[in-house]
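During data preparation, a discrete fold description was generated, as reproduced here:
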Amino acid sequence: MVGDAARLVMTRTDYLEIIPSVASKGAAIRFLAEHLNVPFTETIGIGDQENDLEMIEAAGLGIAMPGAPETVRQAAGRVSPPDEQGGLLALFTEILPQYFA
């Protein structure tokens, strides 16, 4: 529909994004890691919608929010606990205890 110049991404059932094909959150996290000299394996990408999918897949650890679509949750290495169970803070305390103990 939009050709090679862009792609269509549904981020909610009522919201359609048109994103330039060369732009993505995945490309951004790769660029930032390189620019900041952060080993790529030490990056974390967190998202809740399909526009976050490339970032989640590109990051050293991809985390999906519990309400994310199934495709996003399946692509992630981890799914954040729901807020009632501590949410991201509980997950960060588990995986990064040196910062959240």
